[in-house]
What does this fold into?
Amino acid sequence: MLLQILTLVGALGMFLYGMNMMSSGLQKAAGDRLRNFLSAMTSNPFKGVLTGLGITSVIQSSSATTVMVVSFVNAGLLTLAQAISVIMGANIGTTVTAWLVSWLGFKADISILAVPLMALGFVFSLSKKDKRRNISELIVGFSLLFLGLSLMKNSVPDLQQTPEVLSFIQGWQGLGFGSVLIFLVLGTVLTLVLQSSSATMALTLIMLNMGWIRFDMACAMVLGENIGTTITANIAAAVGNTPAKRAALAHTIFNVFGVIWALIAFPVFLRLIGWITAGVFGVPNPAAADFTVEVLHDANGLPIQTDSQTAALYGLSMLHTLFNTINTCILIWFIPAIQRLVCAIIKESAKKSEEVFRLKYIEAGPLATPELATEQAFKEIIHFAEISRNGMLYAQEAILTSETDKFEELRTKLVKYEEISDRIEGEIASFLNAVSASDISEETSRRIKAMYKIIGELESLGDSGESISRILSRRNIHKKIFDEATLKNLEKMSGEILSAYDAMISNLSAAYNGTLTEVSNAYNAEGRINNLRNYLRDAEIESFESESKNYQTSVYYLDIIGELEKMGDFMINISQDLEKAFIKH
It folds into this structure.
């Protein structure tokens, strides 16, 4: 008995592992398409529903989609209204898994082909092409999923041999509406434990197929699973910002509302399910009063799939689909109301953080979709570049000011911005490390390597700003001042640096949007900086030889010019990294 239970647990683990592996392979094989699909999102709620449905149907995980959506709301990539519509679509998309399990796992028993499919997956894994290796992961994951399902079916204990246990379970079904609530809670708890509504759905289908529970009780469990699955998004949002928490709460409100109306109309809803199932598939009505799941075995003791079992499985899958579809059709018209409700429950914090070093777009923890996590990281890098440009504005102001108190205030800010740069670089790198640890495509891996280089260059820009403040501090200590002509030259040089910043940020934004085709603007800015540096340096050396200029003052001036030119080098390096990683040659 113990071995049987351990086998059941192992089979469940194989099912979950296969599902995760299949989802990962699908994400990597369709990574760019998923990005483009999501970027096509508009404010139209119907397109949002189709987007959620499409992505979840592809990656076979509503939890992955909802966590992704919560993270993207946290990152400002989706509005709350868009997120709600995508989550609605994800709820419909996840019902595809139930149909696959019902049809292939029980009716056709695809597990017979699982091992041969693994051989095919192994052959694909030997390919040097990244796409074929991703497909191999998809094939092996698909095989493990249905092999695990088959093992679960075969390893569940035969309760016909232990009638007292079967009687105990079936005793829960004789409490009228109280039984419905009991099995609803059971479905919720199982989903909370397994963190996968698809796995709980598979267990429910097995229990129904074995005749342990009645059809109506299985339907109650499915309703509970729709509540339990919302916990994943709420966990992801727990460390996110206010919009992320609101998106997760909207998911919970959506599913809980659906369960409430389904419970109120439970008998009528079941009759509708039974009528549609019987009419569409030509099987017995699973919601009929006299309907019972008949479990038969052949002469060798092997199970025979009966019409009543097929009817029950199809009926349960139909309930799952219709429940989410009807719920979406009702609530899609009330997205603004849901938005107002979650905003009223989770209010914006009145206290605004002044810590500009805090990450803006990757606060909601790791994504369940690593192929799409690079979107967040890249958005954060653009934010990092904008922060760095603000630091340059302070450096320019520090160069041009003649007031000691004002300079000290600016020097303090430049030191802080250098610390900010160090911290942001470290936090983005940690996020990229977590993404890299997941199975990602070769294209995504190449882009992540470029991102590591870019954040290193941005951190160096922060160092340069702080270095300029140190040069100016030494100048002030030695009581040297720049004349008006020198200040005009420095203003012109720092202006070219700001123009180079604009070109760099423009290229970063274009790469993020997938519209980067060339970086000539960055090369032009670098050329102007180098030419101006050479002109100013040569002019200063010439004037130093012909005029009675203070040598130490000239050294400070040339040191600042050199540091500014170095900043130009860091920025052209960033655009060159973008050119290599994001422009398709």
Summary: The longest strand covers residues 296-297. The CA atoms of residues 497 and 568 lie 6 Å apart.
